[in-house]
């Protein structure tokens, strides 16, 4: 597929913010308005980069343009955290404990969760994976899963920025408790101090954005996730992109990087 095609505006622009019910709930959950596109036309993209570099922010901008769905494994764990204790499986309980400490969840649990959501990977709207894969074992499992379903990745966008600047991004991050929109108290502040501009929900700071957890997340990234760049480089899919500048500047850079390759 040519890079040009991934940045053409989607025809079903009315569905800009896709319903992620099936991804967030898993099992037999259905999205209210699944896309109806020919399967071959979809973009299938992975976003890589350290915690807090801006993957979720870019995912929103890219999904608007591509009409894909933003599939974040971190969002699945955060959605599970809001459920009643009794509804959580022991594996999900354990996963949430790891996440709060800033540690990676086990490959086995993550792969079960993604496997339960295979329909989202096969969706005719394509996908934008954020936070998965995060280890080489996860990347190999994804490769097999896609191959056995006749699907191919379009690109892997790897966002890079010095660690000190990333820590500043993470420490100012606030999330809407209702619609999960992401803000930054310095660079993307809400109009009213702790309320979401979009839905009026209360903003909160993620538990794993505390300094001890951030340190742990950066270490996991260096040890387990960074080697993925070699994995995708060898497959000719990797685009390294500087994450410095405003979200829109980073988005434009992503677009140009893909177009000039
Ligand atoms: P996950 O949710 O995937 O978190 P992460 O990778 O640590 O990434 P973040 O969500 O923290 O950051 P981001 O890069 O999306 O940045 P954002 O756009 O929000 O994972 C959380 C945890 O779940 C893991 O630690 C692990 O425990 C577990 N987990 C998940 N997947 C797993 C897996 N596959 N295997 C094992 N464990 C797994 O931006 C950050 C801030 O900066 C925001 O405030 C934003 O407004 C601001 N900002 C963004 N871009 C800009 C810009 N250009 N200029 C200025 N400010 C900006």
Provide structural commentary.
- The chain is α/β, with parallel strands linked by helices and about 260 residues long.
- It has twelve helices and eight strands.
- The chain has helices at about 5, 20-25, 55-65, 75-80, 90-100, 105-115, 120, 135-150, 165-170, 210-225, 230-235, 245-260, and strands at about 45-50, 70, 125-130, 155-160, 175, 180-185, 205, 240.
- A five-stranded parallel beta sheet has the order 2-3-1-4-8, with helices on both faces. The chain has a three-stranded antiparallel beta sheet with strand order 6-5-7.
- Helix 3 (about 55-65) crosses helix 12 (about 245-260) and helix 6 packs parallel to helix 8 (about 135-150).
- Bound molecules: BIS(adenosine)-5'-pentaphosphate (AP5).
For the record, give the distance between the C-alpha atoms at the N and C termini, rounded to a whole number.
Answer: 12 Å
Shape: globular
Task: Give the SSE order as H and E letters.
Answer: HHEHEHHHHEHEHEEEHHEH
Low-confidence sequence ranges: 10-15
% residues in beta strands:
5-15%
Task: Looking at this protein, list some descriptive labels.
single chain; about 260 residues; alpha/beta; five-stranded parallel sheet; three-stranded antiparallel sheet; 12 helices; binds BIS(adenosine)-5'-pentaphosphate
């Amino acid at each position: 597929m040519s890079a040009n095609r991934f940045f053409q505006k989607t025809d079903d622009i009315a569905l800009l913010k896709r319903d992620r019910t099936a991804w967030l709930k898993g099992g037999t959950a259905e999205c209210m308005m699944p896309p109806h596109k020919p399967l071959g036309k979809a973009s299938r993209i992975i976003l890589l980069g350290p915690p807090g570099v801006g993957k979720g922010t870019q995912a929103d901008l890219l999904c608007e343009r591509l009409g894909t769905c933003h599939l974040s494994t971190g969002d699945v764990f955060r959605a599970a955290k809001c459920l009643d204790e009794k509804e959580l499986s022991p594996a999900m309980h354990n996963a949430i404990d790891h996440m709060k400490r800033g540690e990676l969840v086990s490959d086995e649990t993550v792969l079960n969760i993604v496997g339960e959501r295979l329909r989202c990977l096969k969706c005719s709207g394509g996908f934008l994976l954020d936070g998965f894969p995060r280890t080489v074992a996860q990347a190999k499992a994804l490769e097999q899963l896609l191959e056995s379903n006749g699907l191919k990745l379009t690109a892997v966008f790897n966002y890079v920025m010095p660690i000190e600047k990333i820590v500043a991004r993470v420490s100012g991050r606030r999330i809407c408790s209702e619609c999960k929109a992401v803000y930054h108290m310095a660079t993307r502040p809400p109009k009213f101090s702790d309320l979401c501009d979009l839905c009026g929900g209360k903003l909160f700071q993620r538990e794993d954005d505390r300094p001890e957890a951030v340190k742990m997340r950066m270490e996991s990234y260096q040890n387990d996730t960074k080697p993925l760049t070699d994995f995708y480089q060898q497959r000719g899919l990797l685009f390294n992109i500087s994450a410095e500048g405003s979200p829109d500047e980073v988005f434009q850079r992503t677009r140009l990087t893909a177009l000039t390759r």
